[in-house]
Amino acid sequence: MKYMTKEWYHSMQNMDHHTFIKHIDEKVKNFSDSYFDKMYIKEEQAQKGLYGHIDFNKYFVARLNDIQKLPNSILNEVSDIRMLALGYDTQETYDKIKEYCISNYKTFEKAMNDYHNCVKK
Q1: Whole-number Å distance between alpha carbons of 69 and 33
Q2: What is this structure's pTM?
Q3: Distances 116 to 80, 102, 121 between C-alpha atoms, Å
Q4: % pLDDT > 70, the chain
Q5: Can you tell me the distance from the alpha carbon of 50 to that of 48, in angstroms, rounded to the nearest whole number?
Q6: HEC string of the chain?
């Protein structure tokens, strides 16, 4: 019996998207380049304040790539994926992302428990 499958790996990679969302902000319902620019600068300064000199743009691009792994049913509800990569989301979309992550965690956990039970036998 296989436990660590592609599906398991996919679930493992998609358990924590909701932890990167730090701000519930209804302004992100509408696409706005000026609001994005303002929040990008704010988040870049905050990250540098916390971690010293970092390449914020590399971090941001990595988050964009990770977010694109979310299901289209969720991504289609996001007006500006860049804001999600910065950690800003609406409550409604955040709840859907969190539910998706919890579902992935349960899939991951079940496979791990099944594997450990099999090894014990």
Answers
A1: 23
A2: 0.78
A3: 41, 21, 9
A4: 85
A5: 5
A6: CCCCCHHHHHHHHCCCHHHHCCEECHHHHCCCHHHHHHHHHHHHHHHHHHHCCCCHHHHHHHHHHHHCCCCHHHHCCCCCHHHHHHCEECHHHHHHHHHHHHHHHHHHHHHHHHHHHHHHC
